[in-house]
Design brief:
alpha/beta; TIM Barrel; 2 domains; eight-stranded parallel barrel; three-stranded antiparallel sheet; 13 helices; 15% strand; globular; glucan endo-1,3-beta-D-glucosidase
Length: 464
C-alpha cells in the first residue's frame, strides 16, 4: 500500500501546474460552530474555505445563510438537527419530511449536503427518553430523504462521545459500555444497512489533561516519542490519535460491525487557556493540528485501518466567544474573525509554496586546508515502521517539500515507509540547520557519510 498518496487530481496539479502542497484533500474537514457574536459573514467564510485545502464543513445546525453561501463551491456540507428536534422527528414522519424539504431539498444539489447528524452526543446526555427516540428519528429522516430521491446521496447518522467506550487502552481491547449495548446495536445496524458512518469525537488533548507528563504530550502531539505497545497485538502506537481511533475500530468490530466506517466528527487542541489549565498553547495547538494534517496526508492510516485516512473534521474554524466554561472552551479556533490565521498549519493554498529542494553542495570558491565531509541523515538499523512513520509525519509536517516521495515523484519508488522516511528525515536535517540534533528523531536516525541517492532520486547533502 502506498505510504504517501494523493488523489489523481492533486498529482496532476503538482506535475502540471507546480502548485503548492496545501491542495484540496477530501478527508480534511472543519467544524463551523456559531456560539459567537463576532463571526464573519457566511459569504466571507465561504471565500476563506475556498482558499484552503478544507473540503468539508460540519455545521451543528442548518443555517440557511451558510448553506446558501457554500452553494457551487464543491465543499461538502454536514448539517445537524438539534437534540430538541429529536422527539418531533421520531414521532411525526410529516415533521421529518418538512424538515428535510426545508433544509435539504431546498438547497441540494447546488449546496453539496453529504450528511445529516441527528443530534450530538445524545447517548451521553443521560436523557433516556431522548436516547430511545434517537433511532426512530434517524429512520424518519432517512425515509424522508428516500421520498425525495436523495437517500443514496445524503447519509444519516449521529455523533458520539468517546465516553461511550468503557475501555480504550490498549486499542485492541476497545469496547463500548455494555449499558448502552442495545441502543448501540440498533444505531450500528442502521449505519451498516445504509452505508452511513459512525461519527466520534476523539480528543488527545483531554487524554493529556488527565496525564500531563512530557512523554504523554509528545505522544498526543505526533512528536517523536518512544511509543506505546499494545500487549495483545504487539503493535507499537506512535500517537494518541491512532490509538483512540483504533480503540473505536476494535469496539465496532467486537459488536460485529466491521464494515461500518469511522468519521472523526471533532478533534482539536486549544491555543489558550486559564492559568490552571494544562496543555493549551499556540505551540501545542499548532503541533497537534499541523501534525495531524501531515499524518492524514501521508495516507498511512492507523495500524488497524492501514492505507487510508479517516475523514477528520478539525475543531474549529473560529473561536466561539459566547461559550461558557474555561477560556480553553473559547479558544479552539484556527482562524480569527478577521479571516487571518491564529496559527499556520498548512491549510492555506497560497501559503505553502514548496520549499525548493536544496541543491547538492558546490565546491567552495575558497580552498580549505581540510575539506569538510558531506553528511546525510539516515534511519538507524532495526527501527520499526511505526517509529519511521512517526518521523516521516514529523518531518513532512514541518515545512519540507515531500512531493518527491509522493506518487510520480523521483523518490516515490521503492514505495516503502523506510525509503520515504529516509528521504524526509534527511531533507529535514539539511534544511533545519544540519545540527546533530536535527538528525535525532528520538534516536531513530544517524548521520552517514555514504550518499543514499539512487537512480534519479537525489538526496541533498551537507557538510559536517
Amino acid at each position: 500500500m502506498a505510504v504517501l498518496r494523493c488523489t489523481l487530481t492533486l498529482l496532476l496539479l503538482t506535475l502540471v501546474l507546480g502548485v503548492n502542497k496545501a491542495k484540496s484533500q477530501s478527508f480534511i474537514g472543519v467544524n463551523y460552530g456559531q456560539v459567537a457574536d463576532n463571526l464573519p459573514s457566511p459569504a466571507a467564510t465561504a471565500k476563506l474555505l475556498q482558499s484552503t485545502s478544507i473540503q468539508k464543513v460540519r455545521l451543528y445546525g442548518s443555517d440557511p445563510a451558510i448553506i446558501k453561501a457554500l452553494a457551487n463551491t464543491g465543499i461538502g456540507i454536514v448539517i445537524g438537527t438539534a437534540n430538541g428536534d429529536i422527539p418531533a422527528l421520531a414521532s411525526d414522519p410529516n415533521f421529518a419530511k418538512t424538515w428535510v424539504n426545508a433544509n435539504i431539498v431546498a438547497y441540494y444539489p447546488s449546496s453539496k449536503i453529504i450528511l445529516i447528524n441527528v443530534g450530538n452526543e445524545v447517548i451521553m446526555s443521560g436523557d433516556n427518553n431522548l436516547i430511545s427516540q434517537l433511532l426512530p428519528a434517524m429512520q424518519n429522516v432517512k425515509n424522508a430523504l428516500d421520498a425525495a430521491s436523495l437517500g443514496d446521496k445524503v447519509k444519516v447518522s449521529t455523533v458520539h462521545s468517546m465516553a461511550l467506550l468503557k475501555q480504550s487502552e490498549p486499542p485492541s481491547s476497545g469496547c463500548f459500555d455494555p449499558s448502552f449495548g442495545d441502543v448501540l446495536k440498533g444505531l450500528l445496524a442502521f449505519n451498516n444497512a445504509n452505508g452511513s458512518p459512525f461519527a466520534i469525537n476523539p480528543y488527545p488533548y483531554f487524554a493529556y489533561r488527565s496525564d500531563p507528563r512530557p512523554e504523554t504530550l509528545a505522544f498526543c502531539l505526533f512528536q517523536p516519542n518512544s511509543g506505546r505497545v499494545d500487549a495483545n497485538t504487539k503493535i507499537k502506537y506512535m500517537n494518541m490519535f491512532d490509538a483512540q481511533v483504533d480503540a473505536v475500530r476494535s469496539a465496532l468490530n467486537a459488536m460485529g460491525f466491521k464494515n461500518v466506517e469511522i468519521v472523526v466528527a471533532e478533534t482539536g487542541w486549544p491555543y489558550k487557556g486559564d492559568s490552571d489549565e494544562v496543555g493549551p498553547s499556540i505551540e501545542n495547538a499548532k503541533a497537534y493540528n499541523g501534525n495531524l494534517i501531515a499524518h492524514l496526508r501521508s495516507m498511512v492510516g492507523t495500524p488497524l485501518m492501514p492505507g487510508n485516512s479517516v475523514d477528520t473534521y478539525l475543531f474549529a474554524l473560529y473561536d466561539e466567544d459566547l461559550k461558557p466554561g474555561p477560556t480553553s472552551e473559547r479558544s479552539f479556533g484556527i482562524f480569527k474573525s478577521d479571516l487571518t490565521m491564529i496559527y499556520d498549519i498548512g491549510l492555506s493554498q497560497s501559503s505553502q509554496t514548496p520549499v525548493e529542494t536544496p541543491a547538492m553542495p558546490k565546491t567552495p570558491v575558497t580552498p580549505s586546508s581540510q575539506p569538510k565531509k558531506a553528511a546525510w541523515c539516515v534511519p538507524r538499523a532495526g527501527v520499526s515502521d511505526a517509529e519511521l512513520q512517526a518521523s516521516l509525519d514529523y518531518a513532512c509536517g514541518h515545512g519540507i517539500d515531500c512531493s518527491p516521495i509522493q506518487p510520480g515523484g523521483a523518490c516515490f519508488e521503492p514505495n516503502t515507509i523506510a525509503s520515504h522516511a529516509a528521504y524526509a528525515m534527511n531533507l529535514f536535517y539539511q534544511t533545519a540547520g544540519r545540527n546533530p540534533w536535527n538528525c535525532d528523531f528520538s534516536q531513530t536516525a544517524m548521520l552517514s557519510s555514504n550518499n543514499p541517492s539512487y537512480n534519479g532520486c537525489t538526496y541533498p547533502g551537507g557538510s559536517t
